[in-house]
């Protein structure tokens, strides 16, 4: 029967950084109403043989494509349906810019009824051949051969493709225009409507799928064949590749679409999209005007920040965090005790270049600043939480390798007026750790109100390096706690903290004022030698791309879990919420009297703020207002402590990616002491151990975590609501989601299918990154991490040794508002635990 010569291999790889399938127009193709006109897109294919056949397989006519377009003369249409197919030809692979020449057995297909084809002719509409229409045509013909009626076969095939490949796969979720298409000129620079724009996007995303599966472009139609075989039974069960890998195509396709969108917005920020590509973004619902206003002013804003604060004479001096003392008074033993009394309403003086004000905050031990604990490896710790709050709280020991019962998760709350002793031995390498509350659904607020602290571990390796003057210490080792906050207007010298005051805050709480150790835009006097800074991103949701204002390089020597074996030179470093790095800045490159800023460079924060046409969601009107922004021109124009006064921002919220001034370094003294940074750690440093895939007990059966955006309809067809989930589930205190064998070493695969970056944090141990999107870890990613940023469309694979863990721990997004809303789960290590059984 017709179409049994199933298509084999044609390249489907596409440009990783644009959305358009093509941008050509073919003047030789007539649309005068007498011709059958069409587009064949992968990428557009030129010099392909295009054939039209009737339902019996009779060849009615053939022609040749040019730049993806073709036409047939008008003909009598008497058959119930028609098959159009392409074979051969060539196109430029948009991912690699390689010219791909197709075999005579390779091509695309579509199937149309007589009425559909007649309507296209009368309306001068292009029919379309894409990967989706090819799968559709194969499924329909297979169903007809099995005795199914034409209309039923067509409806079933369209429904299956829509559900398996389109529904919920786009970062721009729930748009009506994202639907299966068999008509449209997918080569035009300017799409006619939203559906045409999305269909093109999916054609590229399908190609991107092949690329993300690490397959060559020429193997793309192998995937099409596998999908046809999978769908023939009316279900999408997944496919098995030739190398034995099982692939859930629905999830993989969604990841590919997400990554394509992210790369497109990256290109747009760099000004690398043409008018047609921008028009297509607009058709799909992006608020490109807002984005252009933001990204176009980024360089100018950053320059203004640098100029303003380099010249300022009113910057406050950086606070040093208060060091707590061991309460047992015995400095010779290996036991230490500390009490942390959590208290509301502690009046804190916020010092700024424009003057000071008072803000009531929540603090430990009534201290106006976050406190610091410094200890050594092997110390037996007793840390008492004295909860003087009016609500439950806990202390989560972030990055600690300790039993779950002492981890401070939401399963063991400490009631108001109660105390809890956390007891454990610090048996892990030197690292920059921290602690903060982790009560159920209240973590974001309690951290935002001021409850957090720093925990530094030393060990024999760091002491050896410091004694040898190969690692700065003492007054050349500074902790920098960086967080953004939003304040109310001043009243009698007081400005309250404002939390969750915008609709956009559910996407992650972001303010307009950056605090460093409790002050706005402080300065630190340094000498012209090596200085070590421990950068902590303790913001609820904001990412930072840290850099020096003059573009100078600095050196990363440590990540969340401790020192790097080999220092890494960079000129910027991106940190998601809860991440830490230790950096070395060599001020010998400056003269006494010089000044340089620590800044956050502009970057493409996420796609949420660009979605300007997504219909009513949660009563917010459009997606622009969903993030508090319907266009930069509509922002309040309020001033900000860390940006020029004319910087536009939204009701106290600066969007992720906005350029920021953080603090200033003033070089005030020559330094006689010579410090030479270490080049590699001593061989006795266990932190240099690198796990590999062969060490994993679950090799070939990796544990998977899919972060996605869930859309649901309100009661009786009400407004759409949005939430972020992991593996389709929200947190349940009584459910264990994953079980890890005691002593196991496991590979975890974390995939982000949502339109914004998520910092993934897992308790219990420190992890090592294996790959990002299949690319082996390098540079800073070789360090030990308890939190790592996963960009939209990205897959990060990590490995960890659970031999030191026991009990029930959390994994979650460390955007604290996401965590509180349920983007979290439990995993159990070993047979013990305080939760119920898996549900």
Question: How would you describe this structure in keywords?
Answer:
about 850 residues; Immunoglobulin-like; seven-stranded mixed sheet; 13 helices; 43 strands; about 20% helix
Task: Please tell me about this protein's structure.
The protein is an alpha+beta fold and 839 residues long. Among the domains are: 35-286, no CATH class; 686-829, Cupredoxins -  blue copper proteins (Immunoglobulin-like, Sandwich). The protein is 18% helix and 30% strand. It is built from 13 helices and 43 strands. The strands form ten sheets. The protein has a seven-stranded mixed beta sheet, with no helix packed on it. It is elongated and about 100 Å long.
Task: Provide the fold topology.
Blueprint (H helix, E strand, L loop, with lengths): L34 E6 L8 E6 L4 E6 L4 E5 L7 E7 L2 E3 L6 E3 L7 E5 H9 L4 E3 L1 H15 L4 H17 L27 H19 L7 H12 L7 E2 L5 E2 L1 H21 L5 H10 L3 H9 L1 H14 L23 E16 L6 E8 L6 E6 L3 E8 L8 E3 L20 E7 L5 E6 L6 H6 L4 E6 L1 H8 L9 E9 L27 E4 L2 E2 L2 E5 L2 E8 L6 E5 L5 E6 L2 E9 L2 E3 L4 E7 L8 E6 L22 H4 L33 E10 L33 E12 L3 E9 L11 E3 L4 E8 L5 E5 L4 E6 L2 E2 L7 E2 L1 E4 L4 E7 L5 E7 L2 H5 L3 E6 L10
Helix pairs in contact: 2-3, 2-5, 4-6, 4-7
The dominant shape is: elongated
Query: β content, as a range?
Result: 25-35%
Please give the number of β-strands: 43
User: Measured on Cα atoms, how large is the radius of gyration?
Assistant: 29 Å
The unreliable regions are 1-33, 613-639, 644-649
Q: N-to-C terminal Cα separation, in Å?
A: 49 Å
Mean pLDDT rating: 87
Order of strands across the biggest sheet? Answer: 22-21-20-24-29-26-27
Fraction of residues in helix: 10-25%
Q: How would you sum up the major sheet? A: 7 strands, mixed
Number of helices: 13
